[in-house]
Fold this protein.
Amino acid sequence: MHATIRRYEGVDQNRTEELTQKVGETLVPKLSQLEGFSEYYLIETGNGIMTSVGIFDTSTHASESTRIAADWVRDENLESALPNPPKVTEGEIKAHKNIAPTSF
């Protein structure tokens, strides 16, 4: 398994609800159609920072998710809400434990 972590800084705090809604309605469906997709999480830490975590079968799938996310920002005209490119970390997951699915 591989993970992609994207940390967005300088997020327009007046648009976090809009971003969260659009992620759920348009980005997650695109990512979930990507071969090798397993999980996706969006984390809002406040102070203009949002982080996403995606879990995929291979590094190729994880890298492709970053391209899809960048295209999504452009296609949804979210450049002003997400003015800075994300700091991206990708790598192989070395340890993992899952107890039970959680509903959000």
